[in-house]
Structures are given as structure tokens and as C-alpha cells.
Amino acid sequence: MSSLNMDETYGSLLIGAFFAIFLQGMLTVQAYIYYESFPTDSKKLKSLVAVIWVLDLAHLIFICHAVYHYLINSWGKDAALLQSTEDFDILVVLVGTVIVLCQGFFLRRIRTFSGNNWLAGLLALACLAILGLDTLIAVKLSINKSVTSFSSLGEATIILSSTGAGVDLLMAGILVWYLRKERQSLER
């Protein structure tokens, strides 16, 4: 195993799995508090929370399965450690789906506040483009299973991450603007 630097690759994967488990626990607590605190919310909204929780749980299961594959089943087999698994391909799509569902929730709020503003539609197109790029990356990963080929997806990953962060920041800014506007129009 001297040809692989396990600390920088699979050690990071293990630490990432630990963080994912912790964050899933936080999400579970948040979902529980939501259901307890807002029992009168619509079934649609409650279903959205449940779907996001289930998708995130599936995401965690695929992460743990991939970590088990690399660090237990393939331990000591350099060739196996250099090949991607189907779990990673599915992970990318699961993450993209959860992101689009969450962004869709906030886009609906923006549309409500803005009165069907064209901006919500433009942001929706950007969100769908992000999901499309996410799916394209998953397809490329499933075609070329070599872990070393991941570096060739660097540009696409940077574009995906920057666009996603930009859309999230823009949506947050728009929501803050509308909420401040509504707050100013109310009497104290």
C-alpha cells in the first residue's frame, strides 16, 4: 500500500463519514422538533420534511457502505482502492435532489413574497441547471470508475459548487429583502 496516501484520501473519507453521521443526528432532532412544534402545518410541508429526511438517511447509508467497501472489504488491495463504487455515483444524485427540494421550498417563498415575480422563475431555472450538472457529473463518474479520473471533473465540480452557492446566497438575500420590507410595513 505504499503507492497510496491513505491519510489524505480514505482517512478523509472516514472523517467525512463521521461528520455525516453527526449531521444526520442533528437533522433527525430538527425534524422531530419541527413535527412537535408545528402540528398544524400542511401535509405537503410535513411530507417535504419527511422526504428530505429519508433522502438524507439514504445518503448516509451509501456513505457508510462506501467507507465499509474501501476500508474493510478492499483493505490491502490497491487496485480495488483506486476504483469508484456505484455508491458514490448515487450519492451525487441524492445530494442534488435534496438541494433542489430545499431550494424549491425557498423559491416558493420568494414567489409568494414577490407576487409571482420573474426572478423566482429565473432562479428555478438555475436550480434545475445545477441538478442537471450534478446528474452529468454522476454519469461521468459511473462511466469512468477510476478514482484518479475524479481530478478531471474539477472544473465541473467548481462550477457546480459556485453556482449552487451563488443561487443560495441570492435566494437568501432576496428573502431577507422581502422580509425586511414586510416588517417595515407593519405597525409595531
From TrEMBL:
It comes from the Eukaryota. Keywords: Membrane, Transmembrane, Transmembrane helix. The chain crosses the membrane at residues 12-35, 47-68, 88-107, 119-138, 158-179. PANTHER family: CHROMOSOME 1, WHOLE GENOME SHOTGUN SEQUENCE, DUF6534 DOMAIN-CONTAINING PROTEIN. This is Uncharacterized protein. It comes from Mycena albidolilacea.
